[in-house]
Amino acid sequence: MAKPQRSFACQNCGALTQRWQGRCEACGEWNTIVEESAAAGIGAQAALGARKGRVFNLAKLIEPERPAPPRILTGIGELDRVSGGGFVAGSVLLLGGEPGIGKSTLLIQACAALASAGRRVIYISGEEAVDQVRLRAQRLGLGESPVELAAETSVEDIVATLSAGPRPALVIIDSIQTMWTSLVESTPGTVTQVRGAAQALIRFAKTSGAAVILVGHVTKDGQIAGPRVVEHMVDAVLSFEGEGGRDLRLLRAVKNRFGATDEIGVFEMTGRGLAEVENPSALFLSARDLAAPGAAVFAGMEGSRPLLVEFQALVAPSSLGTPRRAVVGWDSSRLAMIVAVLETHAGLKLSQHDIYLTVAGGLRVGEPAADLAAAAALISSLSNIALGPESVFFGEIGLSGAIRPVAHGLARLKEAAKLGFRRATVPQGASERGAAKEIAAPKELALRNCAHISDLVASIGATQPRGVRQ
After folding, report:
1. Could you give the C-alpha distances from 102 to 95, 192, 269, 318, 398, in angstroms and in order?
2. Section 345-358 average pLDDT
3. For the chain, which end, N or C, has fewer CB atoms within 10 Å of the first or last residue's CB respectively?
4. What stretches of 217-370 adopt beta strand conformation (E)?
5. Nearest-CA neighbor of 8 among 34, 43, 45?
């Protein structure tokens, strides 16, 4: 009798090997490889005996008589924005975030809003008892919502229960790491179990038409725990972020088959749960020091939403052989490039200075349009000249020192004008793209065009200085 084939899987990244080893060659983690059966898992019955394939029906791409089903709107505008305009029937979303960040709070609020609108919503918790979920709902003032609850971890029992009654509009699985299926020979939380449980729940969502949200834990480096294949299997991956000591929460779409992946939702944690922030720009700029040097307001874009944030820089003489370069909320490689451009093409001496740069409010900025605001903050701190409370900046800086135009200039300036800003430093190249009429649209803003980084240095130097540091 032939021995059953065995394989070894890394519990951190899901990589498969033919033998046990102490360190995974794929991800570099130690003591994460465990033995599992090669014939275990969803669809493994083919290894015990092959069956004849069946002929299935093929659908056409265009079916005019069948319009697209409407999206499921939760009534929480920030959540609907990030999901692409509401949940799609039959879709599966994976929501990840650090412990205590508010994932369960956000989902119970979404469930209550949908259930109050007459939809059938089921919340299944594998980490808490039903009474514990009730207590949280009552604390949030949602105890009267007709949400159906269950505390269960068996995927087979969950699918059988969901299939027995009327089709639910939304199903919450909190969390996928606690689920287990009898078709997999491993303990709950392992890579094989997470993959098998997710596949079974995804199959239920596609066949029934119910929207399913899987809650996922994250590792110490911020990645969703479990195999990366789960992120490929689901339709959307949402990341719920926040910083310790701050009430601000950001919901990002890392992957979305039904919408944009650069949208964000902004929430504020309160005693009654998560509250939507309708004007996040005003929140990010609420506590800024209007007369402090080294602060520049960046008119950015997060998806289709214009967002104004403050860049803060501190340039101080260094006593070290290698000056410090510390960045929070921005790319450190981008800062090194901006410093090199300022030294080479603007004549600023920054090589003997410590540089600290941060994005106020805990937001992480990734678009190149923030180059001009970061450079303005550095110049302001070095020269000890305040940029003024009514100025905004945006533009991309090239290695030659040229300031390149960026997209959505009109939306950025409209948001700045709405918040009371009166001056905007924009790339000179915007007019060369035929966007001069758009850029000049807000009459409240006085535009300052910069074609080169030296123009930015000259415009800041023309301001009345308060004492230049050498």
Report:
1. 11, 27, 8, 41, 40
2. 93
3. N
4. 236-242, 248-256, 264-270, 273-276, 295-302, 305-317, 325-328, 353-359
5. 34
The full length of the chain comes to: 470
How would DSSP label each residue in 137-201?
HHHTT-TTS--EEEE--BHHHHHHHHHHSSPPSEEEEE-GGG-B-TTS-S-TTSHHHHHHHHHHH
Q: Which residues are bridge partners to 396 per DSSP?
A: 404
Separation in Å, CA 355 to CA 88, 313, 351, 373, 454: 46, 7, 10, 15, 20
pLDDT digits (tens, 9 = 90+) for 98-126: 888 899 999 999 999 999 999 999 999 99
**CA 183-189-193 angle, 5° bins:** 20
Predicted confidence (pLDDT) at residue 431 exceeds the cutoff of 50: no
Residue with tokens 């915007």: 430
Amino acid at 271: G
Give me the torsion for CA of 327, 328, 334, 340, rounded to 10°. Answer: -20
Distance from C-alpha of 100 to C-alpha of 239, rounded to nearest angstrom? 14
- What percent of the chain lies above the pLDDT cut of 90? 49
pTM of the model: 0.77
* pLDDT tens digits, one per residue of 144-169: 999 999 999 999 999 999 999 899 99
Residue 434 clears pLDDT 60, i.e. is over it: no
Ordered strands of the 446-450 beta sheet: 325-328, 353-359, 305-317, 295-302, 391-393, 423-427, 446-450
